[in-house]
Amino acid sequence: MSARLHLVRHGQTPSNVAGALDTALPGAPLTELGRTQAETVGDELAGSGISPSVVLCSEAARARETAGLIAEAMGLSTQAVPGMYEVQAGQFEMRTGAEALLAYNRVVRDWLEDGELTACLPGGESAHDVRDRAMPVVSELRESYLDNGTDVVLVVHGTLMRMIAVFAGAVPSQWALDNRIPNCGVIELAPDRGGWSCERWGDHLGRPQF
Question: Could you give the CA distance from residue 159 to residue 169 in angstroms, rounded to a whole number?
Answer without folding.
Answer: 16
